Amino acid sequence: MGVEIAVSGLTKRFGSQLIWDDVTLTLPAGEISVLLGPSGTGKSVFLKTLVGLIRPERGSIVIEGQDLVQLRGDDLYEVRKLFGVLFQDGALFGSMSLFDNVAFPLREHTRKGEKEIGDIVREKMELVGLAGAEGKLPGEISGGMRKRAGLARALVLDPQILLIDEPDSGLDPVRTSYINQLFVDLNAQIDATFLIVTHDINTARTVPDNIGLLYHRHLAMFGPREMLLSSEEPVVRQFLNAQTIGPIGMSEEKDADELAAESGQELPPLPPIPLQLPTSDGTPRRAEREAGEWCRSNGVTPPPGSFASTTAGIVGVDQGADA
Length: 323
Known about the structure:
By secondary structure, the protein is of the alpha/beta class. It has helices spanning 43-50, 73-80, 98-109, 114-127, 143-155, 173-190, 201-206, 225-229, 234-240, 256-262, 293-297, and strands at residues 5-14, 17-27, 32-36, 58-63, 66-67, 83-86, 161-165, 193-197, 210-215, 218-224, 248-249, 252-253, 308-309, 314-315. It has a domain at 5-228: Rossmann fold. It has a six-stranded mixed sheet with strand order 6-7-8-3-9-10. α3 crosses α4 (114-127), α3 (98-109) packs parallel to α5 (143-155) and α4 (114-127) crosses α5 (143-155).
């Protein structure tokens, strides 16, 4: 089962450049969270800080009662065993077969025999849909397959926390949909805590239980998916709905003249909140919430048409929080 990650007051600089300041959030155990933000806002730096590869100037990262920021040596190494990481490009060794790439963490960090390693590798490769491809080299397969091989490697030590950096990078929309479905199915099966960094708005709107948005060197908002998708906060509304009206410009922030030119313009309506992506076989995930639950509990009227599925003939909340 996944574990909770409590981040408090996290601040990171590179020299005089502030990356982000006073980031505070809690990643709930066993849930899928997504971290968004314009390019250059330090999302990948945040992932590396969570796993202890980069040290912040201030703040804490508490996992199972231990502050990872304060740990050193063997203590840090032990906490890192809780993590699996899928890097943006898969980070596979080009001269190794997929089998050896996936087996690498087991050979480096355990004393398991080759037969047991082989069984685990084949199990994880089947889990990500790569059964039969064990002998191929990374250069012989597609980008989507390399992502899945990297995911299999991230899973071989049975992590309780899975960090995923830009899984849609370099993938077409169809492959992105497949890998999103894989994340949802995996979460149901292994119940780990997922944090996905992405730019893909469809992923953010349909996959996670929670969404966070980094903007202008701080965490603009973090919370349940429905909270952010119904938010009127300008930067959250603009980014999650891919709108041009709002504080975000081509160089992250719009200048005063651009904002003044937008003054008085009517904002486009919020689009309907979609149903969350279900598992392939319809098995509920432990963290799954009923559609519209957050809106009803907080007295928020979602945009018209929210939580409706015409393809499955399922209608949840369709015109308001009490529908």
